[in-house]
Amino acid sequence: MRFERRLKPTINIDLTPLIDVVYQLVIFFMITSVFKTAPGIALELPGATTAAAVAVTEIRIVAVSEDELYVGKERTTLAGLDALIAKAVEKIEPKDRRAVLEGDKNMPYQLMVSVLDTLRAHGIEGVGLTTRPAAPTTGGRVGGAAKAPGAP
User: Which among 19, 50, 64, 115 is most buried, taking Cβ atoms within 10 Å?
Assistant: First the structure.
């Protein structure tokens, strides 16, 4: 009796396409994820027609009231702001000292001036104010005085 040898087919699963798809999904979720960097405070930012994106700077200040200010993620009051700013700028070169100030549109003007004064006392001259893009105006006009009703 004569036996025939049959070769068994080798089953091999190629995982390369699966790895490629998983890699693309990871990249997709990394790009589309939104991370909130500011403390969880709901602010209604004032509008500006020239609003533009600001690069991330070293110091971010969120002003809600005199009793509630944030430097980065640390909460303080207006009286304690000086110490937190001093701590934040001690490792930053004087030429690289910049800050971004966020505040509610109903924030008192005196509070903003006090925060800016504290920043300037610590050598921070470049301060950006966070805004949101303004709603489009009707009539295609940007800025300027409004026309009186019935005026040409």
Answer: 115
Nearest to 107 by CA among 45, 50, 47: 45
To the nearest 10°, the Cα dihedral for 86, 64, 36, 94?
-20
| Residue whose token pair is 């533009």 | 52
Taking Cα atoms as reference points, which of 149, 79, 71 lies closest to residue 111? 79
CATH code 3.30.420.270 for 47-133 = yes
pLDDT tens for each residue of 136-149: 665 544 444 444 44
Residue entry with tokens 């798809």? 21
pLDDT in tens, 58-101: 788 888 888 888 988 889 898 898 998 888 888 788 777 888 88
Kindly report the length of the chain.
152
